[in-house]
Automatic annotation (TrEMBL):
SUPFAM superfamilies: PLP-dependent transferases. It comes from the Bacteria. One of its GO terms (biological process) is carboxylic acid metabolic process. One of its GO terms (molecular function) is carboxy-lyase activity. This is Glutamate/tyrosine decarboxylase-like PLP-dependent enzyme. It comes from Flagellimonas meridianipacifica. PANTHER family: GROUP II PYRIDOXAL-5-PHOSPHATE DECARBOXYLASE, MIP05841P.
Length: 489
């Protein structure tokens, strides 16, 4: 390593790159047997990293060895097929390569001339995303960190454009009459955070109850809008779910868009989990009306199998982003160099410095093609249907909620009879499954009752790994029952 810079010699760098590639390859060697979770106690993990600030550098090859044992080999099994919790996709190999290349050239995705190719790639990914969702081809958009940021961005654009006449960017919310956001009770909690961050306050977020399919109740929604109007409040925005996190429910987006129009409101769609399943011909109709949204949140690190992080907000035109974020600053002014065709991302988004998130999306789409990506989404859905069938066929599980997407909610019932006992047992089952670690799965609350929730969003799953999920849950549950009996005896 030279003393003048932080660079290694070409030979050393090549050796380290090769060594790191070996680490990557070893992660894939035995991927089908990768545990869902490695149950190391928190204190132990903390202790692995308990060291003083290093004054001298470590032999980088030894550092890579340390990384392999402490970080890579202990990682939660997002890559492998045994992860079912939250919405964790398995990433993809082309994106691993893309991330390495993007980090090599270290482009700042802000002013056009700081990253000409990357800026045009981001614009292209926005255009392709608009095409996937049936949005206008000249839609504006921006790559953001994930679904939470994508919802916040969509709602920020909504707020700033909707209340532009009131001068909201200058005066803030002072002196304005309270305005109200509407969504179903199944809406993701990141929307609550956005509503708080935007100064609207969760007292003005109306969570409307859902029907038996967990879709927003349209009649109750309209009644609530009328009540709020009568009380002198201003209805501002309806948020439709294009795939809820709990059950994958898709609201009646067409009716929501009509209501938003009728009451002169902004229409935002949270498609972080489910919007990309609209690519499937069989499901297209379920999403009717999504293409009419004023803004939509999408997550590429969910159903486009990207590694974290990568989300996207689409709005109907670039000007909406500019009206929300544009700020002039002498040190950022590129007006003279710009012939009008360069899109300056710093004028269309909150961040100034940004990494090139669109690059891995672009490389993945080009490498795999949409046909293959669609097939992977379909496979996730087919495997969820397969799980539902196995649950229904079994004598010791019950299906609680299925979905048109790839989430299944079920419970282990064993020989238990009362619902109370079953619900309580399933709650206690979760920490035991975490200790076991062969699969990683979590639960949720559906209309007040606990259920196990399995989300399929990994192209490395199969019927065999799905059978394994039920087998592991059954084994851990039976072990708990035996232990309970021993305690009583
Ligand atoms: C429907 C929905 N919206 C928003 C989010 C938040 O996305 P992120 O975790 O990328 O911030 C999620 C995450 O699971 C989600 O399922």
């Amino acid at each position: 390593m030279s003393e003048e810079t932080l660079d290694f010699s070409n030979g050393e760098f090549k050796q380290l790159l090769n060594q790191s590639s070996e680490l990557v390859l070893r992660q894939f060697e035995n991927i089908h047997n990768q545990k869902g979770y490695n149950d190391h106690p928190q204190k132990e993990v903390e202790q692995w990293f308990d060291e003083e600030l290093p004054e001298e550098g470590l032999d980088p090859s030894k550092l890579l060895d340390e990384v392999e044992t402490k970080v890579l080999n202990t990682a939660t099994g997002n890559l492998g097929p045994h992860m079912y919790a939250y919405v964790m996709s398995g990433g993809n190999q082309m994106a691993i390569i893309a991330e390495k290349l993007a980090n090599t050239i270290n482009q700042n995705q802000t002013k056009w001339h700081l990253a000409p190719a990357m800026n045009e790639i981001e614009k292209r990914v926005i255009r392709w995303t608009a095409q996937m969702l049936g949005f206008p081809m000249d839609s504006g958009g921006v790559l953001v960190s994930g679904g939470s940021a994508a919802n916040l961005t969509g709602l920020t654009v909504g707020r700033n454009v909707f209340f532009e006449k009131e001068g909201i960017r200058k005066t803030g919310l002072f002196g304005m009459k309270p305005f109200v956001v509407y969504a179903s009770e199944e809406v993701h909690s990141c929307v609550d955070k956005s509503v708080e961050l935007l100064g609207i306050g969760t007292n003005h977020l109306r969570k409307i109850t859902t029907n038996a399919s967990f879709q927003i109740d349209l009649e109750k929604l309209e009644n609530q809008i009328k009540v709020d109007l009568a009380q002198g409040l201003q209805p501002f925005c309806i948020i439709g779910n294009a795939g809820t996190v709990n059950t994958g429910a898709i609201d009646d987006l067409e009716s929501l868009s009509k209501l938003a129009k009728q009451y002169d409101m902004w229409f935002h769609v949270d498609g972080a989990y489910g919007a990309l399943a609209a690519l499937l011909d069989d499901l297209k109709l379920e999403y009717k009306g999504m293409e009419l949204a004023d803004s939509i949140a999408i997550d590429f690190h969910k159903w486009l199998y990207q590694p974290f992080e990568g989300g996207c907000t689409l709005v109907r035109n670039w000007d909406n982003l500019r009206r929300t974020y544009y700020k002039k600053a002498a040190y950022l002014d590129t007006e003279l160099a710009n012939d009008g065709n360069r899109l300056e991302y710093n004028e269309h988004y909150f961040q100034l410095s940004r990494n090139a998130k669109a690059f891995k999306v672009w490389m993945s789409i080009k490498a795999y093609g949409m046909k293959r990506l669609r097939a992977m989404i379909q496979k996730d859905i087919d495997l969820t249907d397969y799980l539902n069938e196995q649950v229904k066929k079994s004598e010791d599980f019950e299906l609680v909620a299925d979905s048109k997407l790839a989430v299944s909610c079920f419970r282990y019932v064993g020989n238990m009879e009362s619902k109370e006992e079953i619900v309580q047992f399933n709650r206690l089952l979760m920490p035991e499954l975490e200790k076991d670690g062969r699969v990683f799965i979590m639960g949720t609350q559906l209309k007040g009752d606990y259920a196990i929730r399995a989300c399929f969003i990994n192209h490395r799953k199969s019927e065999e790994t799905t059978d394994y999920l039920l087998q592991v849950i059954r084994e851990v549950a039976e072990k708990m029952i035996v232990q309970k009996k021993q305690l009583i005896a």
